[in-house]
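[job 0412] stage=fold_complex status=start
inputs:
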Amino acid sequence: MATRKIMIFDTTLRDGEQVPGAKLNAKQKLEIALQLEKLGVDVIEAGFPCSSPGDSQAVKNVAKEVKKSIVAGLARAVREDIDICWESVREAESPRIHVFLGSSDIHVQKKLRMDREKAMNLAVESVKYAKSYCSDVEYSTEDASRTDFEYLCRVIEAVIKVGATTINVPDTVGYATPDEFGDLIIRLREGVPALDKVTLSVHCHNDLGLAVANSVAAIRNGAQQVECTVNGIGERAGNASLEEIVMTLRTRPTVFQAHTDINTKEIYRTSRMVSRLMNIPVQPNKAIVGSNAFAHSSGIHQDGILKDRRTYEIMKPEDVGIKEHTMVLTARSGRAAVRHKMKELGFDLEKEIFERVFQRFINVADRKKEITAKDLSSIVEVEISKVPETYNFLGMQIMSGNQTTPLSSVQLKKGDEILTDAAIGNGPVDATYRCIERLVGHQGKLLDYDLKAITTGKDALGEAMVRVEIEGRIYSGLGTSPDVIEASARAYLNAFNRYFANNV
Ligand code: KIV
Ligand code: ZN
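[job 0412] stage=fold_complex status=done
writing structure:
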């Protein structure tokens, strides 16, 4: 049976990057964009070019390198934004300018301080202007779900008339419910016949936890493009999750009679990459990509799974690229074995970075008897996501216990200089963080601290993720080690290195 193709518009690098502390540098942005292309997304929204010269340059780099996906940049309905946006995406094989303007009364009157007619004229003028540069222009009626229906239809009709090729209907504040949002799509298609000639898109936020439900309701009722992010990251409670939408359509073909061109086997790897580079942990029970998404813990379920996986599994972990790897590495595994295993995991690293990974592998394997595929992935991902290091971690010593004041001594390297200091604290992590602050000469405010084991077992590799406020801005950090205090120290130092990379 032929099914409708649904376009996947990924906004991880724009709406997703609006998460505090998730800011990427240009190299990291490009790395994620190339992975999104491999995943098969139709559109990559690479950024909001007018937000900073750095973002404009990062979008430019993505536009130059990505060949298969459309590369979009976001612009307000302002000429200068559109100019910068076009400069940033123009070198793409398939560029797109994405213009947005509020359409609800609260946005028009309170935020824009205009009346409806003035806002509509601005929308029309902006689309005309964008169209003078680029044939592919998307227009978003921000806060569409809270917009007067008759006005919404008039705006959409007007911007289509002057050349918008995609109309995006956002549920900007995650206010809609699935029935209501699905119904809005039907009413819009009836109310604006010209929508038949363009791509109808939706963009749902997750404030009530309904972003995916609203997106798939819209698809059922005729939407042809969905805007989403990897792991559902994004402003406030996030955006609709790419992997959940894609797997919903794939798992329930008779309900939706629609498909995407996503290579689902790349989903897990993409999720990991985004989590690490943006330093946003994935909750264990997250659908599709959480560490428990395919774990069966109750005896009855395990029994059922052993008899026939379909008893408790509606998707196969392999379908989203989660593989069981049995071969383990040890400190005696040489470079060839480590490289072979990394290739199997999909990492083909250049010589210099491979050497760094290998040295870290030896360091960890010396302390942890067996290195599993998950351990190795974690080591690789941490190394490739590193920023230039102002301070290198050399080592540490801890004195702690319930009868003594915890004391931590840390050794760092800055250029050729070896720096050592010690500090006491309320616990070993607190003492270590105070010590690092003394060594780098800056204070940090720890906003989030997440520590998890990569694999099972008492000697599992620990992975720490932190978000730290330094000089008024938020930086994230990541560290791994079989020693959880060391993992925590590495994560904290990683956040400071990000600060120095951005400020020195
Ligand atoms: O949530 C929203 O309305 C947006 C628009 C810019 C599309 O992100
Ligand atoms: Zn949004």
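[job 0412] summary: The CA atoms of residues 148 and 443 lie 49 Å apart.
[job 0412] exit 0
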